[in-house]
């Protein structure tokens, strides 16, 4: 991309020369020499600093960030109120360990989570360091509280990369190959993936009933319901390709689990904190938090604007079952991360970023639908709030996944000043998790750049 294409006063993206630049290349070479090969990197950005929805690299190039730290930056890069709270905490107390004692920021964060998590009645919280750790603790608590061992998860799920997290995760080749044996007592059922699996002409309601029948069958064929501690669901699958579970499915799932005394946990690690147009994606199902609720909500990523902080919040009678000393970690809910998370939640609410997510989603969807009319390789467009994805196919009728285009698009997008990532069980999606503080002008600029990237990638693929 030549400088003249982007380097004007009224654009945010500024590319000074060939990418990656000279400084970036030198650091990338050092990364390759020192970081393990297993650590994937989506694009060759070497960041120096970032603000809002933009990242400046070590060569002075400015990018618009559509990856948002894989959904960790809903409040944007370095929101000033958050960095101020972190600075204040850093100067007073870095660490104590909440197994040793107490500091106010851990209490403040739990209190704040209890205001926003859509669970009725008394709640309790365990603070952790990462999404996978919060998910593992939800499993520990569910097993202890029910005295049962079985955990049911979904095809296409992603719950992290620890032994149990990886076991609960789907997409074998990428996340699991060579890493077994896996943990026991984890069972998997089909997710209500409408685009790929709903038979033509079938209503969403009927499809949800079909998928609930799959779950009922699993409770006969795979595990007895009296042995199941919990079902863990992403209300919108993240790594799986931004696939929303219809509200009809969530309600039926709640009813079925309740009938059998099975706990229901919503993994909101990627969907939480305004990303989908609500504070939590489970709230898209009507009556959540008022007429019905889940037992636990698993949170991480955008809770802390980039700090290592995560949480499980749940019904007090469930959360308080494990014995004293049975839960915890050295750093889980450390003072600095808690101060950052408290300020982040305030920021998300004060700036109405759930509403902003809906506006962003509407703008992205407009562009995506228009691209769909010119490229028949775009099989599906999915936007839940600002959780937006395009799914590519080789044939719209057979819906054969197209895993060739997404990496080409990411590459072309980078050359045009965008940071992006792929998704999908079949690796056939590109997704946007753009910081919700992006301005309309920046968003339109990013969409124009992405459109050019998609056009170029489609052309490259066709002539290959
Ligand atoms: C839904 C979901 N759960 C859990 C995780 C794991 O979180 P972490 O990478 O913080 O361990 C992720 C990460 O992408 C996720 O998207």
Topology:
Elements: H1 3-6, H2 22-34, E1 47-51, E2 54-57, E3 62-65, H3 68-71, H4 80-92, H5 104-116, E4 123-128, H6 131-146, E5 150-154, H7 163-168, H8 172-175, E6 186-189, H9 194-197, H10 204-221, E7 228-233, E8 236-237, E9 243-244, H11 247-259, E10 263-267, E11 296-299, E12 310-315, H12 316-319, H13 335-350, H14 353-374, E13 378-384, E14 387-395, E15 400-401, H15 405-415, E16 418-419, E17 421-423, E18 429-432, H16 440-463
Parallel strand pairs: 3-16, 5-6, 5-7, 7-10, 10-11
Antiparallel strand pairs: 1-2, 2-3, 4-12, 8-9, 11-12, 13-14, 14-15, 14-18, 17-18
The structure holds pyridoxal-5'-phosphate.
- The number of helical segments is 16
CATH topology of the domain at 80-350: Aspartate Aminotransferase, domain 2
Give the radius of gyration.
Answer: 22 Å
Major sheet attributes: 7 strands, mixed
Oligomer: single chain
With strands numbered from the N-terminus, the spatial order across the biggest sheet is 4-12-11-10-7-5-6
Arithmetic mean pLDDT: 97
Which CATH architecture of the domain at 80-350 is right?
3-Layer(aba) Sandwich
Ligands bound to this protein structure = pyridoxal-5'-phosphate
List keywords for this structure.
464 residues, alpha/beta, Aspartate Aminotransferase, domain 2, seven-stranded mixed beta sheet, five-stranded antiparallel beta sheet, 16 helices, 18 strands, binds pyridoxal-5'-phosphate, Class-III_PLP-dep_AT
């Amino acid at each position: 991309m030549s400088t003249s294409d982007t380097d004007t006063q009224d654009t945010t993206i500024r590319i000074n020369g060939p990418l990656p630049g000279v400084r970036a290349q030198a650091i990338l070479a050092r990364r390759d020499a020192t970081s393990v090969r297993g650590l994937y990197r989506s694009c060759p950005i070497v960041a120096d600093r970032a603000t809002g929805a933009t990242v400046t690299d070590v060569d002075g190039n400015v990018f618009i960030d559509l990856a948002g730290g894989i959904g960790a930056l809903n409040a944007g890069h370095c929101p000033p109120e958050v960095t101020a709270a972190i600075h204040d905490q850093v100067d007073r107390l870095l660490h104590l360990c909440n197994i040793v004692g107490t500091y106010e920021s851990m209490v403040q964060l739990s209190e704040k989570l209890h205001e926003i998590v859509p669970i009725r009645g008394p709640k309790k919280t365990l603070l952790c360091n990462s999404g996978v750790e919060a998910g593992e603790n939800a499993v520990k608590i569910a097993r202890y509280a029910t005295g049962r061992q079985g955990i049911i998860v979904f095809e296409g799920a992603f719950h992290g990369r620890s032994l149990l997290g990886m076991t609960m995760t789907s997409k074998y080749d990428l996340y699991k190959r060579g890493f077994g044996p896996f943990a026991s007592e984890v069972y998997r059922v089909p997710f209500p993936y409408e685009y790929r699996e709903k038979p033509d002409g079938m209503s969403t309601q009927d499809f949800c009933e079909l998928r609930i029948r799959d779950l009922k069958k699993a409770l006969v064929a795979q595990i007895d319901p009296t042995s199941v501690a919990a079902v863990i669901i992403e209300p919108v699958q993240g790594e799986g390709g931004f696939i929303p579970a219809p509200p009809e499915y969530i309600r039926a799932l709640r009813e079925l689990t309740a009938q059998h005394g099975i706990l229901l946990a919503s993994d909101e690690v990627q969907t939480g904190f305004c990303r989908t147009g609500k504070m939590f994606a489970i709230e898209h199902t009507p009556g959540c938090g008022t007429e019905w609720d889940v037992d636990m909500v698993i949170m991480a990523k955008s809770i802390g604007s980039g700090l290592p902080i995560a949480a499980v919040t749940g019904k007090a009678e469930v959360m308080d079952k494990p014995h004293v000393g049975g839960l915890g970690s050295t750093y889980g809910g450390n003072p600095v991360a808690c101060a950052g998370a408290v300020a982040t939640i305030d920021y998300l609410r004060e700036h109405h970023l759930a509403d902003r997510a809906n506006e962003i989603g509407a703008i992205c969807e407009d562009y995506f639908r228009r691209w769909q009319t010119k490229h028949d390789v775009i099989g599906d467009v999915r936007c839940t709030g600002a959780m937006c994805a395009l799914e590519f196919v080789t044939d719209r009728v057979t819906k054969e996944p197209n895993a060739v285009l997404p990496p080409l698009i990411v590459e072309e997008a980078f050359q045009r000043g965008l940071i992006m990532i792929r998704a999908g069980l079949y690796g056939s999606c590109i997704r946007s998790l753009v910081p919700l503080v992006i301005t309309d002008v920046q968003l339109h600029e990013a969409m124009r750049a992405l459109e050019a990237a998609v056009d170029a990638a489609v052309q490259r693929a066709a002539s290959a």
